[in-house]
Amino acid sequence: xxxxxxxxxxxxxxxxxxxxxxxxxxxxxxxxxxxxxxxxxxxxxxxxxxxxxxxxxxxxxxxxxxxxxxxxxxxxxxxxxxxxxxxxxxxxxxxxxxxxxxxxxxxxxxxxxxxxxxxxxxxxxxxxxxxxxxxxxxxxxxxxxxxxxxxxxxxxxxxxxxxxxxxxxxxxxxxxxxxxxxxxxxxxxxxxxxxxxxxxxxxxxxxxxxxxxxxxxxxxxxxxxxxxxxxxxxxxxxxxxxxxxxxxxxxxxxxxxxxxxxxxxxxxx
Length: 269
Hints:
By secondary structure, the chain is of the alpha/beta class. It has one domain. It contains 8 helices and 8 strands. The protein is globular and about 60 Å long. The two termini are about 15 Å apart.
């Protein structure tokens, strides 16, 4: 990726507060902040936002934790490496002069290490969306989880989304749209030399076309709003339809800044 003046020193823009920025954005597009509608003491565990015109309830989760640093993931990774070496005693990682190639089963098992952490986020958001929809009498399949990933960067965005969507197939039925996005974390997209912020929605089979259209339009408004906060983007917004085979937005990886420590691990991106 070519050098962008001052980008590598701290990022393409100064970090902005995610929750406060989203609250302001939601109000600007006609949505409402649930805590302002239902003051304390609340009798239910509320989600963050309400869009009455859809109607839709949305919960914002800002992920700042690097899940790979947990004891459970580290232990699981060591066990996977032990299995690799048991199958091939001559195997060595790239740093020790080996090929660094992992067997075919490794990627899937590696991703499974992160399922518990992602599942905890989904479980709480699902409960908040369900209870908030019940409070406002909403029965339509229009619950959205806004998953802002600015901290969990050991897995590439398309892998994080894959883990979440796999969990959502059979569980957490109040989440009809899983929106993976970044606010302060730029990603490198295959085929592009410009750092990107991403907005990547995925939908359940329950979601109807009106929800898809609403979320797509919300994304366009989000980037217009964001430019008022951080200044104009280097290039215009680029949209890749869900049905398009072009996977450049999906095949991406988080950009690690110089001050961020890189830990020894397999490259899942």
